[in-house]
Amino acid sequence: MLAVDERTARELRGLARVLVRSGYADDAAISAALGEAVREDAPTADAAALVPLLIGEALLDLKEEAAGWPATTDTDRLDAVLDELEALGLVVVRYTSDHHAAKQVLLAAAEPQGLVFFTDTDVWHAVDFGMLELKLWHPDTANVAPGEPLLEDVLALLNERELPATFDEGRIEVTLNWQRRVTL
User: Fold this and answer.
1) What is the mean pLDDT of residues 160-180?
2) Same domain, 99 and 22
3) Which ranges carry the DUF6891 domain (predicted)?
């Protein structure tokens, strides 16, 4: 990290942290994203040498922290809720690039009951701030509105599973500790 100024080093470590802790990106995707960031933000640095270092640091920090996690984490409960929603006929799209990609999955589904999705940046926010934004749409891609049965059912399920959730400004805000066990 000698070829990188302090601010850039902090930003690159932060990116490595959220990419690794997300638990959705594989080693190749993490390496590609970090490589791009290094080439953009620290063009004089050797990306081939720096990227594995950043990933290694992030993995080591995560491994040390994970030793103290409970047997069942908030993200385990979230996965269970998302599986239940899928079993009820909702399309669930995890860690997608944007709403356009989620919409394509919804439109390709046979007789969907709705769509629940969150993006990669939603997860990164959850990693750092303990709140995941879920988007909930009707099968026709319309957002749910307060008082609608679909929204009330999803909120009830989240809250029953010890994932405090509220609807605010067109999205479900789920309070959780992002503790996903990662293997790269």
Assistant:
1) 97
2) no
3) 7-181
Among the listed residues 52, 64, 54, 47, the one whose alpha carbon sits nearest the alpha carbon of residue 17: 54
| Half-sphere exposure at residue 20, Cβ-oriented, CA atoms within 13 angstroms | 24
DSSP labels for 144-173? P-TT-HHHHHHHHHHHHTT--EEEETTEEE
Looking at residue 116, the DSSP 8-state letter turns out to be E
Q: What is the pTM of this model?
A: 0.92
Number of domains in the chain: 2
Q: How many Å apart are CA 91 and CA 117, to the nearest integer?
A: 8
Q: Are residues 97 and 35 in the same domain?
A: no
Domain that holds residue 34: 6-66
pLDDT at 26 over 90: yes
Asked whether residue 184 is domain-assigned, the answer is no
